[in-house]
Write a structure and sequence with these properties.
The protein has 549 residues and is mainly alpha-helical. Helix content is 44%, strand content 10%. The chain has four domains: 163 residues, HUPs (Rossmann fold, 3-Layer(aba) Sandwich), CATH 3.40.50; 90 residues, Glutamyl-trna Synthetase, Domain 2 (Glutamyl-tRNA Synthetase, domain 2), CATH 1.10.1160.10; 51 residues, no CATH class; 92 residues, Arc Repressor Mutant, subunit A. A three-stranded antiparallel sheet has the order 5-6-9. The longest helix is centred in the first third of the chain and has 16 residues. Bound molecules: glutamic acid.
Length: 549
Amino acid sequence: MSNKELADLIFPNITKTIEDYENMYPTRDLSSNAIVTRYAPSPTGFIHIGALLASFTEKTFAKQSGGVFYLRIEDTDTKRTVDNGIMEIINGLKEFEVTFDEGPINENESIGNYGPYIQSERKEIYQAFVKHLISEGKAYPCFCTHEEIDEIRREQERDKLRIGYYGNYAKCRNLSNDECARRIKNGDPFIIRFRSNGDYNKKIICHDEVKGDILFPENDLDIVINKADGLPTYHFAHLVDDHLMRTTHVIRSDEWVSSLPLHYQLFDAFGFKRPKYAHIAPLAKIDEETGGVRKLSKRKDPECAMSYYHKLGIPYEAVRLYLATITSSGFEEWYLHNPDGNIDDYKFEFKKISKSPSLFDLDKLNNISKNYISRLKATDLYERVSKYLNQYDKEFYEIFTEDKEYSTSILNIEREQKKPRKDIGCYSDVRKEIWYMYDSLFTNLNYDFQIINNKDEIRNILNLYINKYYDELDDKETWFNKMKLLCDELGYSSDMKEYKLNPDKYKGSVADVSMVIRVALTTKSMTPDLYEIMRILGKDRIKERISKI
Ligand code: GLU
């Protein structure tokens, strides 16, 4: 029996050839420098922050070159696929502004001419490619049972040999086509394996756009390319899809780098031009227990999940800025000089991407986020915070959005100025930082009085202030001068320099007195500008709050 006859026996219903698919999915009409990338997640219900980094990188390179960025759902491992996984990916990424030129837009529809973009819908396409390999003698049916495969592994372990289906261990590799046909007709279950022509003792150089040239042993494993359920394995699906979808650059996480010799072989087996590969080094952190560096772990680190950032309300821009800062050399400096610049104005280059694991540090992210938020206009921040609260804190959402102008004016304190306030690192901080500006939340109070904490003295200061020195119409300078007069009258120093020289002459300083007013009105010892807070609260509410002390 010929290879062709064996291929027909295995796939009698597959009538399209690989040439048919070549014609259906022609080379893209793009300029020669255009980069076509894809984000290719498995719909497991979880998006790793490293995958988000990869998606930013893929989109950036495609966009900066005038190319195409598409989404491909890799769901051939049905055991890992969860319900609603596709929508979780699409919606989750949208929150980080990762949107696609092509790909599924929901479970049933997609955009683009290179689909289907969901692998489980491409079974026939893969099988045409498998069939082609069988007819060329480059793939074969394997009838080994799980027990037989286990037995091979045990033997290899016992003899301290490399584990896998290769060389003499590849039992079905040398079955005659006639024998294969007999067993297939007999109904024996089988899968399809790639017939590797590699020699493990020979070396191959693979090129990675980030890491440069890497020397690997050739692949000699006869890997499974088509499983018992008729679907391909990742390796084979990637070959078919990246070829037909005309991907120019496969940008993916580091875990796949050791598959390069196999992937080279698969492309070569078809005579296809290989895509370029770029592997992104993992994100790492210092382990709290051991002090050593380790990869971020889905099990141990909540910050590993993309949803962590969304739930906290860290602006997607800040996450992207942060990831670019830790993974792309030169970016941090560029951003320092262009703090108001758009990240897309920075020219990303593969050779500037970090080759080794980047250390992940939430404090640094928080800092970048604080700076980013500090530069947002109050109206923009109001919209972002409202959207966030609507999803994650309904109670405060109602309060915050009741009077848009009022809330915006609170956010606007010490904003849109040279040294803006930096107390907000994420949208969930907003409640913590401004709750006291809302009367309905100004209950069950826990005042953080500092140096002056004697209740009588506090009341004394507040009463004199409100009755004699406070005037709603005062400008900031007058307001401050009156604070000083209050100090003089009560025996506090109104001049900080003088106070430092002669502390014993006074009960305290103007800083201590204004702290009393700050705490009485807000409960907090750290707030943005007190004058602005008082201006927004207004006379009646100030009086009301003072009367509570
Ligand atoms: N589905 C693979 C994963 O989630 C994709 C790897 C790739 O980008 O090729 O790891």
